[in-house]
Amino acid sequence: MPELPEVETISRVLREGRPTNPPLLGRVIVGSDLLWQRTLAYPTPEEFADRIMGQMIGDIGRRGKYLLLRLDTDTMLFHLRMSGDLVLETAGEPPDVHHRLILDLDNGNRLAFNDTRKFGRVWLVSDPQEILGSLGPEPLGTDFTTEVLFGGLNSRRRQIKPLLLDQSFLAGMGNIYVDEALHRAKIHPLTISNQLDREGSDQLWRSIRQVLEDGINRNGTSFDWVYRGGDFQNYLRVYQRTGEVCPECGTLIERIIVGQRSTHICPTCQIAPV
DNA sequence: CACGAGACCTGTTCGC
DNA sequence: TGCGAACAGGTCTCGT
Predict the structure, then answer these.
(1) DSSP code, position A223
(2) Distance, CA of A144 to CA of A32 (rounded, Å)
(3) pLDDT per 10-residue tile (average), chain A, 274 residues
(4) What mean pLDDT value characterizes chain A?
(5) pLDDT for A12-38, tens place per residue?
């Protein structure tokens, strides 16, 4: 679930609150419980527990697929990987079996990091750049221009799909949004990056921005047991639509493997490179 | 540098 | 019905 639009949605809901939950901003951490050791990437469990105690949540943000809690003197970073989620609950509720870290708050609520597959990670650092420093540009930010994309594609010779999934090239795209962006741009996922001309690169740039904005406007994509209130899954054109018709041309969508990831294409709209 | 395989994990769905 | 295989929104490390 968690690609850029989903992390953005989680970040916004935690920051602004919902009818059922108050916003997290201004809350003070009064306790914590680490239920799966490896969830905490840095520092040690003891230091983590000591350092967060009494710190207030000043802001909540996102960078790429990372969610950031800005505390008084530290930043807590969460990477949700495949199955992570952050949920606000009332203290005293029996914790879900998949909770990996619980932060107790001064208003009787708690923030729980729920992560079925245990791939997610949490860091507590004074300078978030230690963790975020190697990320590529923010796709919806002002420094991701058509020139930057074209230049980046040209300076490498890589299959376009794995390149777009590379977070040091561009921060935030995942398997869903890459497949959707490539379909909208009519680019085959195996196309070698420096084979795209300026027109193709610009089309890809627009498709990336569009698909991410659409995803955010729909509150992200939700699948079965991982529900977040998003409904972009109803607007996907190729992702997990193998055997259904391409909305552009009516050809049946195919599933192939690219870079060991499931990949969905329209074989008519997206022509394979020679 | 670019790519594939395997690892890290649990849960659901698919095929026989 | 049962049971193993395949598969899932991500990323890291290693070998070629």
Answers:
(1) B
(2) 38
(3) 93 89 93 98 98 98 98 98 95 94 97 97 98 98 98 98 98 98 98 98 98 97 75 96 96 97 97 88
(4) 96
(5) 999 998 877 888 999 999 999 999 999
Nearest nucleotide over every DNA/RNA strand to the A135 CA, judged by C1': C11
Q: Is A19 a catalytic residue?
A: no
CA A118, CA A104: separation in Å to the nearest integer?
21
Whose structure tokens read 């599933």? A255
The C1' atom of C11 and the CA atom of A81 lie apart, in whole Å, by 8
One-letter amino acid for residue A16 of the chain: E
Instruction: Give the separation between CA A24 and CA A55, rounded to whole angstroms.
Output: 13
Do A34 and A45 contact (CB within 8 A), yes or no?
Answer: yes
Using the C1' atom of nucleotide C11, identify the protein residue whose alpha carbon is closest: A81
Residue A23 falls in which region: left (phi positive, over 0), alpha (psi -120 to 50) or beta: beta
Whole-model pTM: value is: 0.97
Over its C-alpha atoms, chain A yields an Rg (Å, rounded) of: 20
- Of A149, A146, A171, give the one whose Cα is nearest residue A160: A149
Does residue A32 contact residue A3 with C-beta atoms inside 8 Å?
no
Amino acid, res. A13: V
Q: Which nucleotides of B are covered by protein (CB under 7 A)?
A: 1-6, 8-13
What single DSSP character describes residue A54? T
d(CA A164, CA A243): 25
Q: Which residues fall within 8 angstroms of residue A35, CB to CB, at 6 or more apart?
A: A95, A99, A100, A101, A102
Contact A245, A251 (CB under 8 A): yes
Name residues whose C-beta falls within 8 Å of residue A107's C-beta, 6 or more positions apart in sequence.
A22, A27
Strand partners, A123: A42, A77
